[in-house]
Amino acid sequence: MAAPLKLKRQNSPKPVKQSSLTSQNLPIAAVLVDTPVSYLEGIYDYLVPETLDSLATIGTKVIVEFGKSNTEGLIIARKSSSDQQKNLKMISKLNSPSGLLSLSVIKHIEATRDRFGGGIWNIIKSAVPARVVKEEHIQRQLVTTAKIPKYSSPGFRDLIGRADYDHIQNSRKLKWAVSFPIGIKPEWFLSEFIKIRAQINQVLLIVPDEKDLTNYFSILSEHFGDEVIELGSHLNKNDRYANYLKATLQSKRVIITSRSGAFTELQSDSTVIVLSDLDQSHYEQHAPGWNSRDVSLLRESSTSMVFASVSHSLEIARLIEIGWLEGKKYETKSAIKIVSGMNNSSSVLTIKKGLEQGNVLVSVSEKGMQIFFFVQNVGILLIVNVVANCRSLPKLGLQLVIYAKKSIRIGNVFIVGITGHL
Predict the structure, then answer these.
(1) pTM for the whole structure
(2) pLDDT tens for residues 300-314?
(3) What domains appear along the chain, each with residue ranges and CATH number?
């Protein structure tokens, strides 16, 4: 005889039984857990201890038990009940200052994960330096306490024109792709830009490598003092974490960083400047392989975007073409003549004519290539690598051939004629 049918009662979420050690206010925390395998990466509910109630806020990193081991997690929500029916575990302890990652930073990281794929914790670990507990004495400070000196630059205004100068000084929103003018030091140009722009709000400068970082930090420290800060892997573990906390919790006015700082929290109406986005140092070598340019473009719409370079990437060129970015090129009064190798004119004749006036710089299209021309009475044929030996020239990563009538210093090359690809 068949057994009688029984109706199955649908279970509904029930309030979690709270012990005396569980917080009475929103006792459940939704935690994004860093699991050993990416396919288990997900959000799990944990109980909030009463002793951590005020500190276990959204954006706080915690240590939780997952399976039979302890792992790191990130609180993304607090709630009163849980849909998970099994017995919930308790958060073990905090692993960061309260609310270290704001909602805007979490959304930025999620957008990067959606854009490039991979695990979200791979991006979080790139964005947040390793913890050093003794550096966490730094507390949040109001940005209004920072006194930014008023600054004007007549020389910079004459170079770019009054209209663009006023936009930098007063406009809340910029979307520019700036090409450095020939004959002007990029360091001076960009430093003047930042000094003016920082009077509105924060400026985040993302540079390719340590050399650029230390160079710009040295220049801007003279003007901003303690309101400029550097972030990068060149710092020791303590200083890197301490500077990250200062940048995040104290909202320093100027932040200079390598690619890992592309996720740094900024206030509304701040400006992000990416220097030389074509440089390979802007690309993360590990999965999911994000880059500074695309990560910056994923920021919230109120953030101004400026891409400054000698030669822009194809991605930036496309954004200029479709009108999303406004291309800015500035010319200076200079005797330098630039000749492209794209036309059908003879390179040899161009070099000969250039040598009649001064020195000639030849830039070739492929790394390692060398061009040799037989030119009567040329004098010295000097081959240099621009990245290794020439600070004043752009980092093209190409082999440069310089024809000079007399012996000259690399840093003082007077360029008259150029042929090849820039």
Answers:
(1) 0.76
(2) 888 999 999 988 999
(3) 28-100 (3.40.1440), 133-329 (3.40.50.300), 337-420 (no CATH)
